[in-house]
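Hi C.,

You asked whether I'd gotten around to modeling the 522-residue construct. I have! Everything is below, sequence then structure, no commentary in between.
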Amino acid sequence: MTSQTDSPRDSADRVLIFDTTMRDGEQSPGATMTLEEKLQIAVLLDEMGVDIIEAGFPIASDGDFEAVTEISKVLQNAVTCGLARASKGDIERAWSALQHARKPRIHTFIGTSPLHREHQLSMSKAQVLDKIRETVTFARSLCDNVQWSPMDATRTEEDYLVETVALAVECGATTINIPDTVGYTAPRESAQLISMLHQKVPGLKNCIVATHCHNDLGMATANALAAVEAGARQIECTINGLGERAGNTALEEVVMAMKVRRDILPYRTDIDTTKIMKASRLVSTVSGFSVQYNKAIVGKNAFAHESGIHQDGMLKNAETFEIMRPEDVGLTESNLVMGKHSGRAAFKDKLAQLGYDIGDNAFQETFVRFKALADSKKEVYDDDIIALIEDTQTSTVHDRMQLVDLSMICGTRGPATATLVMEIDGVEHRHETTGNGPVDATFNAVKALVPHTARLKLYQVHAVTDGTDAQAEVSVRLEEDGKIVSGHAANADTLVASGRAYINALNKLMVRREKTLPRQLK
């Protein structure tokens, strides 16, 4: 048994940040992440000061088990958390994956609302209580740091919720998380619920009370902050608000809200906010989910001003229309434009300014691609370089399939013809085919070389910068037998970017096929 525990709070104003990007965030359709990508995210979250990292759901698949195991080995400061249903088999599996963690936590849960009891679990109130007593006690016998959640808490009868929370505390839970599983509640209700539990469950004074909000009605951030004002001292959240349906509470939003509005939200976190943009870009790249331009804190337009009145005010005093400094979240003021004559030293310095510290091999590959881009594009801007880095990270040496060469014949006469060379499992293959336009022809060529039944659900292109020589960023979403994956790529040639994004999605589909569904609740 580990002796590692969290104190309920370091001080009255301290709020713990619990990141579940790699567990709840990955449950977004199409957001499958590889082990290497999860390790990248975990290391960055650890460096930026996240307190608890929910690394996965070990019973769900061998891939999730491996991810939690490997993340447990690399985290230096954060608590490593594994999710488990109210089942001894789940809890044992989670504990097995957490064995290497410096600070392990088992997070177990069960549905408590009438809808979940009757339709998901087919259990009575008494049976659910028996299961809580059995599983929380068992989890605590393995680990001193146990988090318990009553799933769909915000739609659970108040008296019964009090009874379940009190029992979980009695059985040894050290953190009680109150999930708004379907994004149903509102800020006033969120605060009242936390206050009520503090009043009616005396044992909560020795526990951390957490909040986990979904964004179905667009109130996740407001609900989380309201819960904190009422006494919650842990917020469960994800980078970019990634998550099922409309997503989760966005880490960057709650952290910056407490930093900027400390006058009315007198709470603190240990998050290094200058790493927020880096984390946002990394999660966007590996998940294939682009950040909307007007997304709070991390959107491309979050610090952009087009209105003449706004621009005039900004020139006179930035505080007229900005409540945060761009550098507070990791953006730089640098306007240094790179070109084909820029050397390795200048390029490395530019990467540092943008917040990237990549290994030698990745640097060499990115530099080669930068020089190639600079040969075809007069000026290379920050966004171009960011797109290069993200594209390099998206395509890995472990991918089974790579685009080697693509040529196209198209125009106003007749169908487009694509000639594609792909490397598949280390062997090059060539195919020529036609289509209703160049993109259709490209995708048809890929399908001819890699037969599959996946349907194209989304094809999206946007320019990284202004001008006709701008790089194209392409996102592709595929669906096969209920499995949804996203691919992402950037290139100065829109068709090359399209082909690579499609192939990137297929590589992820191969990974997704290997995943198994969780076993039924025992």
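If it helps when you're writing up: The domain at 16-287 is CATH 3.20.20.70 (TIM Barrel).

Thanks,
B.
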